[in-house]
Structure formats: structure tokens, C-alpha cells
Amino acid sequence: MAWFQGDLPLGMNRYVFGAETEFYVENGINPIGEVMVGRFSYLCSPSVLIAFSPISIGSFCSVAANFHCVTHEQHPTHLATTFPLSDVLGVPTSHGGVIGLNGQKEVTEPRPITIGNDVWIGDSVTVFGGVTIPDGCVIGAKSLVTKDCVPYGIYVGTPAKLVRLRFPEKVIEQLLELKWWDWSVDKIRANLAFFETDLTAFDGRLNDLVRNPELAQSA
To answer: Does some domain include residue 97?
Structure first.
């Protein structure tokens, strides 16, 4: 039984904000700050999401356990200490122990994290503040993402590096134009052939694979 139609797996919570706008988060994840999650994405526990600047996760994303996504956590290395004296001892330093925050935990240097649509993030991945992981990316397990990625890239390592693109560039361009993650549930269900086509060697027009729900229902 699909999550959208029936019961969720054990430990998964459903959050609903309107028609076709649900997303799923396992018990044990308590996001702090401005965290936005798109429709049907799911996040596994345990994970840490702390957003002094906004954290945005798109639709249809698959996020494995031990995801570490904190916008501001880099301690200063150019001062006498990297320790957060203001937090622990109440010393009125001009910074909050990390770069980009002041002593009152107010953002002085925005470092939002933006994760696109249809992104797969493996187990134990850490994303640095200010990074963008665009549509279609795959981030391998235990990777440390310190810089912006390219759409539909596969990244692994510490720091994460591009291994290859998932598809030929012509296919990627078409996928970014189609934006299938914005389709209605009915249209997604009507396009099984599109979602089962091997695109790694595809050399045609993706639009030729797409059919509208009403066409599928009458077929």
C-alpha cells in the first residue's frame, strides 16, 4: 500500500498542508528554525536540521538517516580560541562562537542551504551552510558537501566531488524543463512508461514519453 493511500511505515509521521502537499519525517527529527520541505519528500531519523538561515528541501527527495544539515556551525580559526565563550561563560564576544552569527545568535552572514527536487541523500551526509544541491543530485553515503553541486550530478567523498552526471546533458536539460515533480499525482500515475525508461542512453525527446492522465485513462 502506498504511503499516500494508506498507513505509513513504522515510525514515520505524515505532515499535510493541503492537497498533494504531504511530506514524511521519522520520529526523532526535530528541526530548529526555518526548515521547509516539499511534497512527498521523506527524512529518516536520526538527523539534525538547524536553520539559523533557511533550509529548503524540495519535492520527492529521499533523505537517509544521520543527515546533518546546519547552516552555521563553522567555528572561527583566526582568533585565540574556537570555543563559544559567549554561550558557555557569558563572555560578551561579538560572535556567537560560529562564523556568521553574533553573540545573540542573530544572523550576520546568511548561509541558507537549498536542496532541490528529486535529490537522493545517502546515510551520514553532512551539508555545509550556504550550499545548494540542485534538482536530481545523488549524494553518496558519508559525504561532506562543502560547495554547490550541479543538477543531476553524483557526488561522493570528503569533501564531496562530482563523480559523473546521471544522464547525458541533453536529457538533463529536458528533465529540468519538464519539472515532473510539479505534476499532479494523477499525471504521475498515468506516466509509468516515462518513469521506467532508462534515460542513461536515451536519445530522443522526453516529451514523446509523456502522456496526460486523460489519455492514459482512455487507452
So the answer is: no
- 146 and 174: one domain? no
| Number of domains comprising the chain | 2
Instruction: Note the pLDDT tens digit of each residue in 70-120.
Output: 999 899 899 899 988 888 888 888 887 889 988 888 899 999 999 999 999
**Could you give the CA distance from residue 177 to residue 58 in angstroms, rounded to a whole number?**
16
Distance from C-alpha of 187 to C-alpha of 123, rounded to nearest angstrom: 31
pLDDT, tens digit, 9 for 90 and up, residues 161-206 = 999 999 999 999 999 999 999 999 999 999 999 999 999 989 999 9
List the catalytic residues: 75
Q: Contact 150/144 with Cβ under 8 angstroms? A: no
pTM over 0.85: yes
Give the range of the structural domain holding residue 139, as residue numbers without chain letter: 12-71+111-166
- Helix, strand and coil content of the chain, in percent to the nearest 5, comes to 15, 25, 60
Residue-wise over 195-208: b if at least 16 C-beta within 10 A, else e? eeeebeeeeeebee
Inside any domain, residue 82: no
In angstroms, the CA 201 to CA 188 distance is 22
